[in-house]
Design brief:
single chain, mainly alpha, elongated
């Protein structure tokens, strides 16, 4: 492998690490958003009399509440399973990329400001 090919390979690994870290951050934001929706739903359910949660009143209330309107997504088993699986796969990919980085001899240099 030529020096140019080695540099290109190192650059690609570093780029992949940055992109994977960004994706992992985005998944963390999504998980946090879903968690806030579920937390809000719990607070609403605790604070309302049971009869106020009947369908017509509930639908009207949920339509005016962003967290409640997103709660159906947070309660979806498929959405949660997809998020968990994607998070795990992305974290594994990041570990693999960092191992490649070490194998290529790339070291983190301390940042100076």
């Amino acid at each position: 492998m030529t020096d140019d090919q080695k540099r290109e390979q190192k650059g690609q690994v570093l780029l992949d690490i940055v992109e994977t870290e960004d994706h992992l951050s985005a998944l963390q934001v999504k998980a946090s958003r879903l968690g806030r929706s579920l937390e809000h739903l719990g607070k609403v359910l605790q604070g309302y009399p049971p009869k106020a949660l009947a369908a017509p009143d509930w639908d009207r209330h949920a339509a005016n509440d962003t967290y409640l309107s997103n709660a159906h997504e947070a309660l979806s088993h498929d959405v949660l399973l997809e998020l968990v699986n994607e998070y795990a796969a992305t974290a594994t990919r990041l570990d693999d990329l960092k191992a490649q980085k070490r194998a290529l001899g790339i070291v983190d240099r301390p940042r100076t400001t």
